[in-house]
Amino acid sequence: MKYFNYVIGWLFCILFFLSSSTYASHIVGGEMTYNCLGNNQYEILLTIFRDCENGNPAAYFDQPAYVGIYNATTGAYLRTEALLLPNDDTLDLAQSNPCYNIPSNVCIHTTTYRRQITLPNNSNGYHLVYQRCCRNNVITNIIDPGQTGATYDVVISGDALASCNSSPRFREWPPFYICQGTSINYDNSAFDPDGDSIVYELCNPYDGATTLDPRPNPPAGPPFSSVNWRFPYGLNNMLGGADPFRIDPVTGMLAGTPPSLGIFVVGICAKEYRNGVLIGITKRDFQYEVVACTPLQAQFAVNLSPCNASLSVLHLNTSTSLGVTFDWDFGDNSPSVTGVNPVHTYPDTGTYTVQMIAGVGLSCVDTVVRQVRVHLDGADVSVPPQVACVGDTVLLVANNLLANYNNIVTYNWSPNSALLSGQGTDSVYVIANNNINLSLTATNDNGCIDVENTNVQLEIVEALFDSVTFDCNTTLDIPFNNQSTSVTNSYFWDFDGTGTSTNAFPVNTFPDTGRYEVTLVAGYGALCQDTFTREIYIPLDGASILSTSPTQACKGDTLILSVTNELADYNNIGGYTWVPNSPILSGQGTDSIQIVADVNTVFTVNVENENGCVDTVVLPLQVLQMNAVFDSVELVCNKSLEIPFTNSSVDLTLNFLWDFGGTGTSTDVSPTYTFPDTGTYTVSLIGGIGTSCPDTFRQVIDVRLDGAEIVASDTQLVCRGDTVLLTALNTLSLYNTMIDYSWSPITNIITGQGTDSVNVLANADLDFQVIGLNDAGCRDTAFAHVNVTTISPALAIVALPDSIFVGQTSQLYATNFLEYSYDWTPDTTLSAYDIHDPIAKPRQTKTYYLRVTNQYCTHNDSVTVYIKPPICANPVVFVPSAFSPDGDGHNDVLMVNGNNINEMTMAIYNRWGQKVFETNDQNLGWDGTYLGRELPPDVYGYYMQCKCDEGGTLFLKGNITLLK
Questions:
Q1: Helix, strand, coil proportions of the chain in percent (round to 5)?
Q2: Dihedrals φ, ψ of 146, to 5°?
Q3: Burial environment of residue 745 by CB neighbours within 10 A (0 to 12, 13 to 18, 19 or more)
Q4: Nearest to 388 by CA among 434, 354, 352
Q5: Which end of the chain is more exposed for a tag (fewer CB within 10 A), N or C?
Q6: What is the CATH number of domain 296-374?
Q7: What pLDDT is recorded for position 94?
Q8: What is the per-residue pLDDT for 868?
Q9: Radius of gyration of the chain from Cα atoms?
């Protein structure tokens, strides 16, 4: 029993650890939206934020995130979609108020899950839900935050499905931290891809999931409970204080002043209206961290050392915030700069008035002015390094780079042992027997010291080339092997007046044998040079023979093979040995032999001269025996003037020339020749062209075209049920006559069997065969394919919406297929008549007819757009809640919208009650100016009264936001 209790205790500890790891606090905020992609396809976007500073490190993003799908009307569970985790990112937490220095110990991770899912149209709609426990456990304004989960959901209503609606999207995520006691002024507005109206309000964040099931699969369905607010916080005062947190319902601007430090969760809802009807709500909740902020204060420092030696000065920015824009004026008439820590080069020494402005363009701009004294009291010398030859006396000179500002009073060179003279002065001499490294310590009249290192580098040059030796030499072209050492790799050779060269490894052609003095200069044209001279002796004591014999002979010929001594002026050949000996009739041992050509033979001649040097020459002899002949040509049921010839001569490695009865020639071994027409031709073949023993063969051939050759109609694509004409063509009709055509399958042939043309019924894809017989008894077969098609995909038409007011538009949709052509009628009230999705704007109920054709088939359909009775009320008549006169061509002018307005008047006032615009003309809108001056972004009030065509009247008042 004790053992059992022990095991149970350990299991409890393990489960507790695992569960606490799973539900560890981390949720900061999130939202869920959707995009309609068409064809019942929707992209779901789930954005989640987690705290990587205060949250539990074990609580990472879900992989995958489970999104439950419920029936939006009945609440019935339908299925779960698993959204895979993409890459996460750490947010760049830009300051919400750059006028304050905000603490940097805030870390937020974010990720957006995306998944494309199928949602068939239905009138009930869908409710998508994601739940996760738990929230950040340091939240101030809710009870037990570490045990409180979150629900992020979105409803896609039946109307939204029918119109392929996409939900609004908030433009940006609000700043995660704000300043205590500082007013919030943040644009939390959203945009709607479909152009629907949006109304904003604060809403309660949802609770969701539990510590026992922190990652439910599936998530629980609606309804959902709200978080439990901690007193005195609540929906109407989420941050506390006398200036409560709020949102403008029209513009989405957040306002309020947070009085206390802490972390606060808030909820925002964007309600989507179309034609005055609520069709969806996009909800987000997020955290504000209220922190103590330091106001912006401009300050900088310049720290020049007493021995400063540069006019380039670092200006170290020590302002309380470095995340704003700075402007620097250095007081020397140079252009201002905007860097954070600029390095500026002053024109000269002196005292300059330097001004730094911090927070340029902000309301909290701050300026600091300081006197900066720039001096050059330091020491700065340079000693250019030198290059020298071995043994040179070298002068090294120190230059005072600040001679206009101070004087060098002592020079100390080291090591002193390397100096020839000049110690204590600005100039010293050294002897360059090796590479020398020197250091100069210079002290000026201000007691400042500079240490400069320099050196003397030797340029080592040594000229040398190998001796030239000869053994049985047979050429006057002599190569030279350069072994010099030279930094510049520049050389000059003199070959005893017989030639010169600047190559590193030259080859010189001497005029004759004898003794020559060759000179090499290494480092030619450079600072350091070296010269080397060597005498060489060039003999021609080798053996060298050359063949003067023919390489081809006809079988049975008697001929002479011989060689010549190329160096007869310099030495004599002692004997000649020819191999093989058996074909030789006479001359063995001499420079010439006599033979009878019988078979291909390779002769070798070996010689030795009076100096004991040897040489060998190879003489290949090709013995030719030609018997030209080609195969007889028999043509039966021939269908081509292109005739192949087969060469059956004895030796196919030789050259050949064909003559095709004077109509053309060829040098191919076995050519294929195209004759100009039928007829009798004498074809000749000459073999062994270019040799001394060619041979000729002739043959008479009869070229005729008595074969059958037919082609059938090209493949056809027709509509099912059409009658198609198939035709067979005799391509050799000039040479023979077709006497019969047999078509199959016969069940689809309507007329024409036995002739070259048949009518067939196209009720399915079919292959037809035709066999033709000509008057020479030759047959040929051809095929024709008939491809049957229909209108596919099937044509469908819809009008969205199908009921509109006069002046509104309806989007017509027809099946969209690239190969279709469209023709809508009547087209006078359509945006286009030849596209699949024109926009209709009828003045009365109208039926539109569509004729669709592809390359082969046609289909018709129609759709009706109904005109609703006009009303003088919103949404038919309305004033937009915002506009942006920024010149981008979009929403630049505020207009009164309504297609049934007969007369109207509208006035617009600023926040002080001053009238800035008035009009009685619906076509005259406000461009955001007053008395020719652009007004700043703000909220303006308006009054509008109108009379409609049907006699009704409407009075509207409200706010308009001017955006920039």
A1: 5, 50, 50
A2: -70, -15
A3: exposed
A4: 434
A5: N
A6: 2.60.40.10
A7: 46
A8: 82
A9: 52
- Asked if residue 174 lies in contact with residue 254, where contact means CB atoms within 8 angstroms, the answer is yes
Contacts of 647 (CB under 8 A, 6+ apart): 630, 656, 669, 670, 685
> Distance between CA 656 and CA 661 in Å, rounded?
16
- Give the pLDDT confidence of 759-772 residue by residue, as tens digits: 988 888 888 999 99
C-alpha dihedral over 488, 494, 498, 504, to 10 degrees? -30
Bridging pattern class, strands 108-118 and 300-301: unpaired
Tokens of 803: 């009921």
The three-state DSSP-derived secondary structure of 311-365 is CEEECEECCCCCCCCEEEECCCCCCCECCCCCEEECCCCEEEEEEEEECCCCCCC
For domain 710-789, the question of CATH label 3.30.40.10 is answered with no
Q: Where in the chain is the domain with CATH 2.60.40.10?
A: 296-374, 381-458, 477-538, 545-624, 642-703, 710-789
Which tokens go with 262?
């802490």
Check residue 5 and give its pLDDT: 38
Residue range 477-538 in CATH 3.40.30.10: no
Residue 1 is predicted with a pLDDT of 37
Cβ density class 866-875: b for 16+ within 10 Å, e for less? ebeebebebb
Instruction: Give pLDDT, residue 251.
Output: 94
- Under a CB-based contact definition with an 8 Å cutoff, are residues 953 and 943 in contact? no
Whole-angstrom Cα distance, residue 734 to residue 956? 91
DSSP characters for 700-720? EEEE---S--EEEPPPEEEET
For 788, phi then psi, to 5°, come to -100, 135
DSSP, res 591? S
Cis check: omega of the bond before 214, within 30 degrees of 0: no
User: CB–CB of 707/637 below 8 Å?
Assistant: yes
Sort 373 into a burial class: Cβ within 10 Å, 0-12 / 13-18 / 19+: exposed
Within 8 A by CB and 6+ apart from 323, the residues are 94, 95, 98
Tokens for 159? 């109307």
Fold observed for domain 381-458: Immunoglobulin-like (2.60.40)
Q: What is the pLDDT of residues 386-407, one digit of tens each?
A: 999 988 999 999 999 999 999 9
With b for 16 or more beta-carbon neighbours within 10 A and e for fewer, the 947-961 pattern comes to bbeeeeebebeebbb
DSSP 8-state secondary structure symbol assigned to residue 93: -
Mean pLDDT rounded to a whole number for the chain: 89
Instruction: Give the count of alpha carbons within 13 A of 421, CB side only.
Output: 3
CA 672 from centre of chain = 52
C-alpha torsion sign, points 308, 309, 315, 316:
negative
Looking at residue 197, its amino acid is S
CB 772 within 8 A of CB 764: no
Q: How many whole angstroms separate alpha carbon 804 and alpha carbon 876?
A: 10
Task: Assess if CATH 2.30.170 describes domain 797-867.
Answer: no
Q: CB count, 10 Å around CB of 425? A: 11
Which residues in the chain land under pLDDT 50?
1-24, 94-95
- Residues 377/405, Cβ–Cβ less than 8 Å: yes
pLDDT value for 506: 95
pLDDT per position as a tens digit, 568-589? 999 999 889 999 999 999 999 9
- The amino acid present at 615, given as its one-letter code, is D
Q: CA nearest 848: which of 825, 830, 814?
A: 825
Contact of 424 with 411, CB cutoff 8 Å: yes
The CATH architecture annotation of domain 882-962 reads Sandwich (2.60)
pLDDT value for 105: 60
Q: In whole angstroms, give the CA distance from residue 752 to residue 90.
A: 80
Q: What is the pLDDT of residue 669?
A: 93
Q: Per CATH, which fold does 545-624 belong to?
A: Immunoglobulin-like (2.60.40)
Give the rounded distance of the alpha carbon of 960 from its chain centre. Answer: 44
